[in-house]
Specification:
With 229 residues, the protein is mostly helical. It has eleven helices and two strands, in the order H-H-H-H-H-H-E-E-H-H-H-H-H. Helix content is 72%, strand content 2%. A two-stranded antiparallel ribbon has the order 1-2. A hairpin with a 2-residue loop joins strand 1 and strand 2. Helix 3 runs antiparallel to helix 4, helix 3 packs parallel to helix 10 and helix 7 packs across helix 8.
Length: 229
């Protein structure tokens, strides 16, 4: 049985709902402000994305250090790779501090990067941006497999449950599953239907990163990750 939803989880959810509601309103009724201010580069939404990613990375690193001697190698490998992934994505979101540190863009990125920034996800390969391939194909496919295959099997099959626990895979709780699905409906159905703004994906990333943070920090299989003194 999943543990009760903590106060911290409720606060994070309320905060995500608030920013998503405001973003939806702006996208539909004031798309210029939504595009040029609310989801602007280095704006509040982008920095909140970084906060969500960095927090998840911190949780994973802390988990890795705590369990480095008590868990099997599969658990540690999964946790390490996940921590590295969140570290890389967090760095990419802020272009590795390029604008913050006022670093000039090298010639390679001026020529190959769609936004002329020091990051990999905006590189153009064969006339296609890398992030389009990742966000439009790989992430949706992985999320569908996770939500509709791995999670149901985890609850029904003991071998799958043991495999996920041994490999340190956090299983989303019911409210987290619903949050993923409602976010997809909000952005890809509601906002897209009324205001097909190209920057609606920023709202998806913001909310998605915080849902993932909750998924990793407060999973259904919390006992697997519980840290004792």
């Amino acid at each position: 049985m999943s543990p009760r939803i903590s106060t911290l989880e409720k606060v994070v959810l309320a905060y995500v709902v608030l920013f998503c509601a405001l973003g939806t309103y702006l996208a539909i009724f004031n798309p210029v402000y939504f595009h040029n201010v609310y989801t602007m580069e280095d704006g509040i939404i982008e920095w909140l994305q970084f906060v969500g990613l960095a927090t998840t990375c911190f949780v994973l690193v802390k988990r890795l250090i705590h369990f480095r001697k008590s868990k099997r190698w599969m658990f540690l490998v999964t946790t390490l790779l996940a921590a590295l992934a969140f570290f890389l994505v967090a760095g990419e979101e802020i272009s590795w501090g390029q604008r913050l540190l006022n670093i000039e863009t090298p010639q390679y990125f001026l020529e190959k990067n769609a936004q002329q920034e020091v990051n990999l996800h905006n590189l153009v390969v064969g006339e296609k941006k890398i992030n389009r391939i990742i966000t439009n194909r790989l992430i949706p496919a992985a999320l569908l497999i996770y939500l509709f295959l791995i999670i149901p099997l985890y609850h029904r099959n003991e071998k799958v449950r043991a495999w996920c626990d041994n490999w340190g895979i956090p299983i989303a709780r019911n409210y987290q599953v619903w949050a993923y699905l409602l976010l997809a409906v909000l952005v890809e159905v509601l906002i897209k239907s009324f205001a097909d703004t190209p920057r609606r994906g920023e709202l998806t990333e913001f909310a998605g990163y915080f849902i993932v943070m909750l998924n990793v920090t407060f999973p259904h299989n919390a006992d697997v990750f519980r840290q004792t003194p």
